[in-house]
Amino acid sequence: MPIFSLFFKRIFPLIVLFLTPIIAVIAINSRSVAFSTQTIAQRITSPGLTTPTPIPVPTQTPTPAESQLPIPVPLPKNTLPSDIKPSIPSPTPIPSSPQFPTNHTNRLISPPERDNISAYLRSRNVSTNALVNALTDTRFILHDTSVLMSPSTLDRERQIGRGPLGLGVNAFLPRENTTVLARPNFYEARRPTTTEFEKASDILVKPERERLFRQAWRSTNDNARRQALDTALANLGLSWSEIATEQTEARGKLAAASGRIYTTATWSVESICTRFNGGDRSVAIPNQEEALRSACAPLSNYFNIRNTRVKSTVAAEIVQVGVRSERGNQNTCSASNPNIATLPNPAYSETQYTSATALYLRAALAAGKFPQMTTHFTLDTFDPAGHCDPRCFNLTKLYSSIASVVGNAQGSTYGITPSYGTRSGTNNIWWDDRICHGSAP
Questions:
Q1: Which residues of 406-441 are buried (b: 16+ CB within 10 A; e: fewer)?
Q2: How far apart are CA 330 and CA 343, in angstroms?
Q3: How far apart are alpha carbons 49 and 423 in whole angstroms?
Q4: CA distance 34 to 437
Q5: CA–CA gap between residue 44 and residue 102 (Å, rounded)
Q6: Which DSSP category does 323 fall into?
Q7: According to DSSP H, which parts of 219-343 are helical?
Q8: What is the pTM of this model?
Q9: Left (φ > 0), alpha (ψ -120 to 50) or beta: where does 259 sit?
């Protein structure tokens, strides 16, 4: 039998028999794939289907033995020339602390410094303030009371520290006890002033200022006066009796021919001038418009400066003795005055220095920057009757304490550079070796 006949008659049928199930499986799988693809395509493109149905894609987790191949990233089509670098936005700069002695006045607090300050205040159970505002200028004024203040007196200041009431001081620092926060909302705009600088007496001297206040009041009608008195004391947390007392006193002071004019009366005149300078002529008495204009014109700049100074300042009174007797010479700035009470030795306690450190750091945290440390002696040098407090205070020691807490280099300062002596305009810390029990730092 020829070989080809043998192949087709005996071998080929065996091959066909062997391949038939394989071809059937392939055909079934092909139909299954075709059907699946067609069904998916039909679901995606069916009319009325607005959101394509998500198709799960199986993932295959490689075994530890398998190596991960890097995915090639194509180069950008439009590459920059070699001499041009892409512009990358600069991040917001974070303030950093200098690692050498420097004056940190009004420098923004860095995050590490903020952490150090917060931890220190928490360790002393001192409440902290949120950021008030980014004032261009902040200051921390050191005073001494020049009179011993009893715990009951300090507690009264704490209770009445609202609006025009009290002494306007933010905190009192007793010799042994903890700090008394009379006005815990630091950088408060509506409080009595504590210095002639805050009163802006260098801008408008007291006699002329009070003359203009009274001229403005006399030129204003009764209805506008009542509204001004109400505006002056609005939203300050005062009781009805406190408001009535303040308004009665303010009316009397402004109606008098002379005498001191206090906070509520000052705010009332400010309210009148704000309305008038804003174009409201109805506040003036008939035929007195020119008199009101001539009074309010110079007062406008005065009020702006006064308000800016008050709201950028924290005032601290360190409790200290004053004079021996109220009948003798009351000048505690004269080292030759025999009526000056003998100061303790040392003049201030460790408690007072520690309290001053915490209070300053609280003021710094509230402002987000280091306020300018200064003294009443410094700010009121332009005033012939200026004060000299705090007497015998070691500002160098306070600066060292602040630097240690914050983490700044020793030798750093936070305001005025200490100059110890008794000469106003030359020195900024009043110091007499005999009164202060030793030489200056």
A1: bebeeebbbbbebebebebeebbbbbbeebbeeebe
A2: 15
A3: 90
A4: 105
A5: 71
A6: B
A7: 222-232, 240-255, 263-277, 289-311
A8: 0.77
A9: left
Of 333, 344, 312, 340, give the one whose Cα is nearest residue 388. 333
- Smallest CA-to-CA distance from 387 within 199, 191, 195 is with 195
- Residues 6 or more apart whose Cβ sits within 8 Å of residue 401: 353, 354, 357
Cα dist. 150→145, 153, 155, 176, 284 in Å? Answer: 12, 5, 9, 12, 47
| pLDDT value for 135 | 65
Sign of CA dihedral 356, 357, 358, 359: positive
Q: What is the DSSP letter of 281?
A: G
- The rounded average pLDDT for each run of 10 residues, N- to C-terminus, in the chain (441 residues) is 46 48 40 36 31 38 38 38 41 66 95 96 84 75 97 96 97 96 94 97 97 98 98 97 98 96 98 97 96 97 97 97 95 96 98 98 95 98 93 98 98 98 96 97 96
CA distance 42 to 49: 10
One-character DSSP codes across 92-158 = PPPP---SS--B-TTPBPPHHHHHHHHHHHHHTT----------S--EEEEEE-SS---HHHHHHHH
7 DSSP 8-state letter: I
Task: Give the pLDDT of residue 127.
Answer: 81
Q: How far apart are CA 201 and CA 208, in angstroms?
A: 10
Q: Which two tokens stand for residue 150?
A: 């009893």
Amino acid at 288: Q
Closest CA to 322 of 338, 336, 341, 339: 341
d(CA 210, CA 174): 35
Asked if the peptide bond before residue 111 counts as cis, ω within 30 degrees of 0, the response is no
**Planar angle of CA 41, 46, 47, nearest 5 degrees:** 155
Q: Tell me the three state secondary structure of residue 416.
A: coil
Tokens of 60: 């295959």
Length of the chain: 441
3-state SS of 49-81 is CCCCCCCCCCCCCCCCCCCCCCCCCCCCCCCCC
Residue-level pLDDT at 244 = 98
- State how far Cα 284 lies from the chain centre: 39
Q: How far apart are the C-alpha atoms of 278 and 342, rounded to whole Å?
A: 54
